[in-house]
Design a protein that fits this description.
Distance between the termini: 51 Å
Shape: globular
Number of domains: 1
Helix content: 25-40%
Oligomer: single chain
Order of helices and strands: HHHEEEEHEEEE
Amino acid sequence: MQPTPRARRLRQFAAWLRFLTGVVAAFGAQAQTQPQEPAHDSLVTPTPEAASPWTSAQAVARLFERACVQHQGQASAAVDWALSQGFEPADLTHGNTDSLLSGQPGSVLAAPGSAGRVLLAAAQGQLCTVWVEQMAGPPLRLALAEMLANLGANGARVKLEVDRNIERAGAWRNQMQWRYRGVGLTEEFSVGAVTTLTALPGTQALNLAPARPAPAYAPDGLPAR
């Protein structure tokens, strides 16, 4: 049975995320209450089939903050929160959603009313991803940056480590990566965004994972052995 176009896109984008994760790891080794459904905003006009309060750029950023960032990537907490908001298990006929879990046990849930275009993947190992289809990249990048800036203004430690455009297989995307630590917490996380460069609808992803330890340096300024 031939995979559907959506399944192929899912696998290709999951491979793209794994590639960028490796790039960030190499770069880092060298350099140093509960809300109801959000109101719709006008940054992105959804198609009739995807007229959901979860399909705007700001709503996706809020989803990522509340499901992934606030719960520090804890899969059970993220899933419980999503279920309380009406999320449902993703329809596996839309594609190989297991690719979003990076091979780890976990759950993939679809936002209500989004026709499977907004997915939350929460996996063991504090891996949390929000996958979005048919959305423009620049508004989502801006919404995520604003969300993190607000967290930083309220006491969280937020440091931008990577902001670059990368071409692979003929496609250009922007990659941004922050090191994040919540207020009063000691564990640091890597918060990333892989988004398209143009205003045309495309596939976007936001992800959170435990940050790699910062490299140690000897008194002479060289990396410690």
